[in-house]
Hints:
Radius of gyration of chain B: 18 Å
CATH topology of the largest domain in chain A: Rossmann fold
Strand order of the largest sheet of chain B: 2-1-3-4
Number of strands of chain B: 4
Number of domains of chain A: 3
CATH superfamily of the largest domain in chain A: NADH-ubiquinone oxidoreductase 51kDa subunit
Oligomer: heterodimer
Strand content of chain A: 5-15%
Helix content of chain B: 40-55%
CATH class of the largest domain in chain B: Alpha Beta
Distance between the termini of chain B: 16 Å
Number of strands of chain A: 11
Number of helices of chain A: 16
Shape of chain A: globular
Amino acid sequence: xxxxxxxxxxxxxxxxxxxxxxxxxxxxxxxxxxxxxxxxxxxxxxxxxxxxxxxxxxxxxxxxxxxxxxxxxxxxxxxxxxxxxxxxxxxxxxxxxxxxxxxxxxxxxxxxxxxxxxxxxxxxxxxxxxxxxxxxxxxxxxxxxxxxxxxxxxxxxxxxxxxxxxxxxxxxxxxxxxxxxxxxxxxxxxxxxxxxxxxxxxxxxxxxxxxxxxxxxxxxxxxxxxxxxxxxxxxxxxxxxxxxxxxxxxxxxxxxxxxxxxxxxxxxxxxxxxxxxxxxxxxxxxxxxxxxxxxxxxxxxxxxxxxxxxxxxxxxxxxxxxxxxxxxxxxxxxxxxxxxxxxxxxxxxxxxxxxxxxxxxxxxxxxxxxxxxxxxxxxxxxxxxxxxxxxxxxxxxxxxxxxxxxxxxxxxxxxxxxxxxxxxxxxxxxxxxxxxxxx
Amino acid sequence: xxxxxxxxxxxxxxxxxxxxxxxxxxxxxxxxxxxxxxxxxxxxxxxxxxxxxxxxxxxxxxxxxxxxxxxxxxxxxxxxxxxxxxxxxxxxxxxxxxxxxxxxxxxxxxxxxxxxxxxxxxxxxxxxxxxxxxxxxxxxxxxxxxxxxxxxxxxxxxxxxxxxxxxxxxxxxxxxxxxxxxx
Lengths: 439, 183
């Protein structure tokens, strides 16, 4: 259930402008949120006007915190200039394995996101917003529903908000256990009451989104950053990070580390420092076998590939991506990499929506091969079969689930081939089969 | 066949409120299926038909959505729905041992329910609390950093509670129904 607020001192390596659980204040109460400066930026946005708010968000260089890193201001400006009703949809369908960042806002600081929603809805002139929260997040849903009720009661939602003349209704929508609904067009289908099967793009949601109307879909962390950007100014936010990667980023460290947790660092922070300083180093002071930089859809990295900048461009040199910036650390000697690979294949197979053949069948093949290896019936050439299956999935599907399934497996099969081959022999022996000698 | 079923007045009021949130009635489908599941325990065929009638949708549209989402239950679920995360972070920190303990304590495999309707055991995908792994969820409650001995004790407590409370709404009748539907 909810974590009780406790006061502590964040590490100096952190730069906290979003996280404030260290203050020891219950920010799920509207009066506490307002007492700490809440909703001042809504008032400021009213004074600035829509164009100025949009300009400030553009100047901040804020990029979508769901993982794709698309510039938020640019996304907002893609809405067609017509009279159709617009929707703001909030993607709080946190489900990427290894990730635990939006949960913080949803459970501990819900009004920051809601103030961001108010400002964003005002800026794009939307009068209805749906917050789509992952079904399993019961506590997040309860806190958010309560926060919305507090806002209606105090005149911060509904008609003519605080005398501004602006109307906004916010509704919480709940997912029902489908990872794919984190994909924005699947999420839109789900809000419409349909199976969460992603749509072909174009048309993009900005033109034809939920209920066929222009729709902006933003992640929870993205919207939570909006009031902070207005407070400090777009340029000051941009200056916190690296070029083209403005601001701070919530980062998580989990797995085989001494002090797992959620932290906030300037964009571009060293991944090694995040793991060894904020994460406290590796369990039993072991070596790193592998890491996943930001959720299991990201290609895995080897232990010597962590000297990279944690921003949307910094992981390209090592062939991976920032993703959700929640790192999973796997230590030498504590990790069964074949077991990990089997879990990854099982996950993407289970969560494939099934509409594209390469993904529906391909994820099944990846899992079947991994299962076979796990059962002691693997052979070295099965590793090549995995790579071949990945090649036939990626780029051939409507949405990125195909790549999300293929890329981590390809990275394991290529970067960790010796470990996989050893695991294949170990499993064969353990299950009483005769292992093929190494080629 | 079973007797005609209807939503309670409280559920009806909630559905009416939900319908005001969407320009099309189908928007209210998933929240309505959740309400129906709360009221009737699981989404048996008559319940799906009731939802279809109430929202003026075809049964096939309701069925397509209900079948897609794992949290919409197409078979009865026990009073305590134990879901253990078996994804990467929890796997790295011992979720297999937790699953083993649960199987032994409850005498069922993942995906099964105890015959008395007290427990359903399942593995669940990443609950996204990896900094507090291993995790599990029982009904609407999260449990973090679960140790094997904690899980053993927890299941014993719930067993005792389950005997007192008995199976969930309509469990015995519904269990028969579920088996008949599978046959």
